[in-house]
Amino acid sequence: MAKTSSVEKNKRRRNLTARYAAKRAALKAIVMDQSRPLEERFRAQLKLSAMPRNGAKIRIRNRCEVTGRPRAYYRKLGMSRVALRELGNSGAVPGLVKSSW
């Protein structure tokens, strides 16, 4: 099980990202637009850098919903391979059968 503080920190990052997504997108569009004057683009870049870092989508870490494990994460299922195997062995995941040969 991952540390509770790590899981909570990631939840705060998700909330900040959702809150600032529209504003960040607008500022990034201004910064990337080559047709705008350089001063306006620079002001937009300063505003963007003044925003909270944890508001950036890249700072979110994919974590298992069951255990909080950050590695071996399956995006489609939202959990790690360890949790998937445990749930699969107990029969909690429909359609998943333990292989044997």
TrEMBL record:
One Gene Ontology CC term in the entry: ribosome
UniProt-listed InterPro entries: Ribosomal_uS14, Ribosomal_uS14_bac/plastid, Ribosomal_uS14_CS
Keywords assigned: Ribonucleoprotein, Ribosomal protein, RNA-binding, rRNA-binding
Transmembrane segments: none
Presence of the UniProt keyword Metal-binding in the record: no
Record has Iron-sulfur as a keyword: no
Stated role: Binds 16S rRNA, required for the assembly of 30S particles and may also be responsible for determining the conformation of the 16S rRNA at the A site.
Family, similarity comment: Belongs to the universal ribosomal protein uS14 family.
Subunit (UniProt): Part of the 30S ribosomal subunit. Contacts proteins S3 and S10.
Protein name according to UniProt: Small ribosomal subunit protein uS14
Gene field: rpsN
